[in-house]
From TrEMBL:
Cell compartment(s), UniProt: Cell membrane; Membrane
Transmembrane segments: 6-25, 37-58, 101-120, 132-152, 172-194, 200-227, 239-259, 265-282
Main location: membrane
Keywords: Cell membrane, Membrane, Transmembrane, Transmembrane helix
Protein name: Probable membrane transporter protein
A GO term from the CC aspect: plasma membrane
Topology in the lipid bilayer: Multi-pass membrane protein
InterPro entries: TM_pro_TauE-like
Length: 296
């Protein structure tokens, strides 16, 4: 079943690249704003962090906001999903082949995340810009809180003493439902890593098992979500391509050279800035809810 999953990820990669390359060629004279070098550096740094388990969505959002790479905030969810798809698939292949996980558990949770992302991306792509800003702010704060809990060791405590490598019965059903929800939430910028790790811990699996599950989940859902954003045009083409190229290099570097680095201080810096960005987006998007209250 693991080989089937690897084959599925390979097929999804080809499926995604077909639409991504076709769109870039068709719109080669309209790639949008942004800077190639800045986008590439963002991809290199964030996907190196992603390989180390920190996650890429929150720091990418922080850096895109800081460097003003996007033409408008509506492009953010699509750019996040499109730009990190290829690097994450590379990560998934590495972890799936190294860490032992019960095939049924791995396959079921990954498929659930893929279905969740498909439904979520279709919903998010139709949201007005102000609502996207508001929900992105909420997503960033949730992500930062989970990252902080992980840094404090509170999420790790949930997995202390866990040795299971697979789920059965009601726990498997809960895991499937949980990863379906996380897959949908990822399309509005809630990074799947930290909540997936918490879910895995609470269900009694070994903490190490979280890595192939969360990597494969993202690798499975991101080509689907990314393709939907590509079809709707709700992403930055130049920035996404730059982050993709830089991200591939970042994954290779992190895997081979920097897996032993202490990322504690850097992670806390990211948490603080992500919280700031989250409240900034909420402030920008609260007009949407104010408008709804007036209508009601």
């Amino acid at each position: 079943m693991v080989q089937i999953l690897l084959g599925l990820l390979a097929v999804l990669l080809v499926y995604y690249l077909f639409y991504f390359i076709r769109d870039l060629v068709a719109e080669r004279k309209n790639l949008g704003g942004g800077n190639w070098l800045v986008a590439g550096l963002i991809g290199l740094v964030t996907d190196a962090m992603d390989t180390l388990g920190i996650g890429s969505f929150a720091p990418t959002t922080m850096l895109l906001e800081t460097t003003k790479q996007l033409d408008n905030d509506r492009q953010l969810p699509g750019t996040l999903n499109v730009s990190h798809t290829v690097p994450v698939i590379i990560e998934a292949f590495i972890f799936i082949t190294v860490v032992k996980v019960a095939p049924l558990t791995l396959f079921s949770l990954v498929i659930a995340a893929i279905v969740g992302s498909y439904i979520g991306s279709k919903t998010v792509s139709k949201l007005p810009e102000k609502k996207v800003q508001f929900y992105m702010g909420i997503a960033l704060i949730v992500t930062a809180a989970l990252m902080a809990l992980k840094q404090l060791g509170l999420l790790d405590l949930l997995g202390t003493g866990n040795h299971l490598t697979g789920l059965t019965g009601s726990k498997l059903i809960i895991g499937i439902i949980g990863n379906f929800i996380l897959g949908a939430l990822m399309t509005i910028g809630v990074g799947l890593y930290a909540p997936c790790m918490a879910l895995v811990y609470m269900l009694g699996l070994s903490p190490l098992v979280a890595f192939p599950i969360m990597m494969a989940s993202c690798a499975g859902l991101m080509p689907v979500a990314g393709t939907n954003f590509i079809k709707s045009g709700d992403y930055s083409r130049k920035v996404s391509l730059g982050i993709t190229i830089g991200g591939i290099i970042g994954v290779i570097i992190a895997t081979r050279f920097v897996t032993g680095l202490n990322m504690n201080v850097l992670t806390w810096i990211v948490i603080v800035v992500v919280l700031y960005s989250g409240f900034t987006y909420i402030r920008k998007g609260k007009q949407a809810f104010a408008g709804n209250l007036k209508k009601s």
